[in-house]
Each structure stands twice: as C-alpha cells, then as structure tokens.
Write a structure and sequence with these properties.
The protein has three helices and four strands; from the N terminus they run αββββαα. By secondary structure, the chain is of the alpha+beta class. It is globular.
Length: 94
C-alpha cells in the first residue's frame, strides 16, 4: 500500500495546485467511477465509497489498489478532474 500512498500524495499536491489556480476547494478526488464510485476524501486522506457513504477497510483498499494505481498511471484520474472543471470553469471555450 506504500506505492498507492505515494501516488495519492502526488495527486493531492496536484489538486492543491488546481484549487489555488481556480480558487475553490476540492473535497473529493474521484479515483474509480466504474460501477462504484471510490474517492479520496482530502479532509482526512481516506478512501471512501460515495454510494454507501463509508470509508474502505484496509482489505478493500488492498483489493482495489491495482485498479486505482492503473487509473492514476493512465491519467484517468486527471481526466476526471479535467472533465469536471471543463464544465464548471469553462475550459475549452474559445
């Protein structure tokens, strides 16, 4: 889980930059949205299942770790942010 933690710390730094750039707070960072929505709760650094409003157990994190890392490495997590901010902030209008 240390590899995942490193990835999440890096993502958290990127999101902090986005917050500074756009001027609003981001509480949840989507990591998986296929089927169940798994997010990083930036308030406490825990992974949360949005639909169930509960945090993942260590065992659940181990089971999803590979998928989360895959989504991060492929840029899917950053794509989730880009799509969201494109609508909210007006990116891409020209």
């Amino acid at each position: 889980m240390s590899k995942l933690r490193t990835y999440l710390e890096t993502l958290n730094q990127k999101v902090s930059y986005v917050e500074e750039l756009y001027g609003f707070k981001i509480n949840y960072l989507p990591l998986i949205i296929e089927g169940t929505t798994i997010v990083l709760d930036r308030k406490n650094g825990k992974l949360k299942i949005i639909e169930e409003n509960r945090y993942l157990s260590d065992e659940e994190i181990k089971n999803l770790e590979r998928k989360i890392i895959e989504n991060i490495e492929k840029g899917i997590v950053e794509l989730y942010l880009t799509i969201t901010f494109g609508e909210d902030v007006g990116l891409g209008e020209g």
